[in-house]
Amino acid sequence: MNVTSTVTVLQISRLRAHWRAAGVSAVLALFLVPASVQVQCAYSVVEIAPPSCPFSQESITPTSMHDDGTIVGYYTLCGGVYRGFRRHPDGTFETLPVPAGAFGAVADKIAPDGTIVGTADVAVPGEVVGRLTVWAGSGVVMADAPSSLVWMSGGAAGNLGLAGGMLNTGFVGDVPALWQNGRYLPLPPLIASAEGRFNRINRFGARLADISQGIGFNGVLAIWFTDDSIEVLSPPRGYSGCVARSLNAAGHVAGRAFPADYPASLPRAHLWRSMEIIDLGVLLGMQFSLSDDINDVDQVVGGSGSTSGGGISVFFWADGHLYDLMLLAPPLPGGYYLEAGAINNRGQIAVVGYRIPNKSRIFLLTPLSLADADVTIDCKVDTKDLLAVLECWGPRETSVIERADIDGDGVIGPRDLAEVLGNWTP
Predict the structure, then answer these.
(1) Dist CA 18 CA 23 (whole Å)
(2) pLDDT digits (tens, 9 = 90+) for 221-232
(3) CB < 8 Å & 24+ apart, contacts of 334-338
(4) Spatial distance between the Cα atoms of 6 and 247, rounded to a whole number of angstroms
């Protein structure tokens, strides 16, 4: 196993891509008028409610979204029990089955092949514990725990039933865990010896984990690739620790950085992208920000808030600009304060709106006027889309941006380039 904290083979390939893009940009600048910046999509909104409850305790939360628009998450039954759900693109709402021996369950993540990973609630003498759970096809499997008192939870979903999350015995902190086909998978020493958890698995099988030693917000991020190399991502300068939230196909990470004097100073959303760490900032009048998800074109959603109260505003970050998402969407029903949930590679965003007492709704935001040739999902076709096609040139299966295969023939090539040029935004 090759462990590095500086430059890896993957990082070198990323640098080469940046160099190629820079060269292409210089040539294109001679012929093309630069597109205006800070132009983003407007959105349509669909409201999604949980199953009706006569006691008005209608609570629902999205946790992950597939590229086809499938949303997974959990809702609360009238008696306070959690149930996982899958909301299909056609609007069909499906309650996921609870595994045998459990009384409730939460769906946490959905993988590209539709595998869902989550946590089931199991009663043991004197308490309730969690069990890592996998839904694949029409079946459900609950992982066995090393002992009846171990708490387990899911947090990452990969193809072919690969499930990531954590274990906790109550004697030490959370311990990262990977499970597949009825067994726990061996972990590399760097991850196995640390506290933490797996948070995301991307479509190439890379696994993202938080890892730390000891107490306090002193963690780092670790990406464990399928070739067994590990890339360690340190906190940005001036921060003592960081927490991972999401990993895209390029290996870029959306996370949260914590200052050394937290909670006296507040966390900030950051993006770890190749050789740079980007502070995503805060919305106007806010004091902190928390990233939640990232898609393959480096668009990040999260929340920004203030210690003075008033809830958290949902932010959308793209191309170095931070937007208040609610200024891009049509007015939502009154009385809800919003938090981000997930974003997919079609630019769809699932947010949750909370209203007291015990009531929430999902609002699914879908970009308007999104052309197939709009590879970078900003509702215009311009130089950025042209560059994305050139950078991703070759087989779709190895591309970090699948949308660059505009004609859907499995190869990103001349015909996709022609689609961009033929749909150029004036």
Answers:
(1) 9
(2) 999 999 999 999
(3) 336/360, 336/361, 337/310, 337/311, 337/312, 338/311, 338/312, 338/313, 338/314, 338/363
(4) 18
